[in-house]
Design brief:
The chain has 346 residues and is an alpha+beta fold. The protein is 19% helix and 30% strand. β4 and β5 (96-103) form a beta hairpin. α2 runs parallel beside α3 (139-146). The longest helix has 35 residues, at 2-36.
């Protein structure tokens, strides 16, 4: 009986020791597992894209590219428009708008349809030290291009070679330049694509919010002619971007079907005057004036200035307005009837 009790006691002790060893082993394994879990630290990217304000790993070395994009309803949807860092929209003749698309962060597979140059398009490209792409020109623009006002390639000289025609549209709505042809285009005209005259904008840091202003989640511009050239921007609080409609049709990229997603929508009021029987215009892009800035669902009235050839929104104290990182769309608004009459928001 005593022997049995001793055996039971010994057996119990062995069990306790065994269980204890097992628990210790499990603790050690857990400790080892915890120690081997890799800790990933967020790496601060050292560079910022000059025209979108986005963080990148490598410094930008390519010169900006500016292309005149056809905005006629028969030219929509345009190709490569979602890849543009900045899009400028302005009247070209009558109440028909045209786009200037600036590319640097990304060169799309195809850009277009490409359309003809105007003198103020060329001035904008020159101010940004951009390589300028167009197909055709007004008389004033032709003189400027022939005099070397800006490095450029024109489809009038390279139609069917550097510029390609699409079969699904008719001229003048079917001229495109493949992205891979831009380097060849620069070589043809002995132009450098090296980013030398470095221009950039001022951007908010990722953890900053845009300044306070009037809440406005919808903004519309009316150019006074066909509704096809009226644009509506709607703010999405989830994505913190603006979608765009032109003529009540969503603006998408023909290459991908991707909708435009804008971080900043700006309106610059400028004097416009008709200069010929075709309705071509002269636009004063130097004097400055009233501007509207829409960011993160907020509207603010500020000013715009031409700073060494670069058009920028500025505060009343003269400091540069910060942009939210991402794509920007800038409208030029005729001073008659004026920005208050042409741009509405709610």
């Amino acid at each position: 009986m005593v022997r049995n009790k001793v055996m039971i006691a010994l057996f119990s002790t062995i069990l306790l020791v065994g269980c204890g060893d097992k628990e210790e082993a499990e603790k050690v394994e857990e400790s080892v597992d915890e120690e081997t879990i890799p800790v990933t630290e967020e790496v601060e990217l050292p560079y910022v894209t000059p025209f979108t304000g986005e963080k990148i790993a490598n410094e930008v070395t390519m010169r900006p590219i500016i292309a005149t994009i056809n905005n006629h309803p028969d030219a929509r949807p345009q190709s490569g428009i979602a890849s543009a860092d900045i899009v400028y929209e302005m009247l070209a003749e009558g109440n028909i708008t045209r786009l200037l698309a600036l590319y640097q962060s990304e060169i799309p597979e195809i850009i277009g349809p490409i359309r003809s140059a105007r003198d103020y398009f060329i001035e904008i490209a020159a101010g940004l030290d951009a390589f300028y792409i167009a197909h055709g020109y007004s008389p004033e623009a032709q003189t400027m291009l022939m005099n070397g006002f800006v490095d450029n390639i024109n489809g009038m000289a390279y139609d069917g070679t550097i510029f390609k025609r699409s079969s699904d549209r008719v001229a003048p709505h079917n001229s495109y330049i493949p992205g891979e042809n831009i380097e060849l285009a620069a070589e043809k005209v002995n132009a450098s694509l090296l980013y030398q005259e470095k221009v950039s904008y001022n951007f908010y840091e990722p953890d900053e919010s845009a300044k306070m202003g009037i809440e406005a989640t919808s903004v519309e511009i009316n150019y006074g002619g066909s509704s096809s050239f009226n644009s509506l921007y709607t703010y999405n609080a989830d994505t913190k971007t603006y979608s765009r409609e032109a003529g009540s049709v969503e603006t998408t990229d023909n290459l991908t079907g991707e909708p435009i997603a804008l971080s900043n929508v700006l309106f610059f009021e400028m004097d416009h005057s008709i200069i010929d029987s075709a309705g071509r215009l002269e636009i004063d892009i130097t004097s400055g004036g009233t501007a509207y800035v829409f960011q993160q669902g907020i509207m603010r009235e500020v000013l715009w200035e031409n700073v060494d050839g670069v058009l920028k929104a500025v505060e009343t104290d003269g400091s540069e307005v910060k942009l939210v990182p991402g794509q920007t769309w800038i409208h030029f608004v005729p001073s008659n009837p004026g920005i208050v009459s042409s741009v509405s928001f709610s």
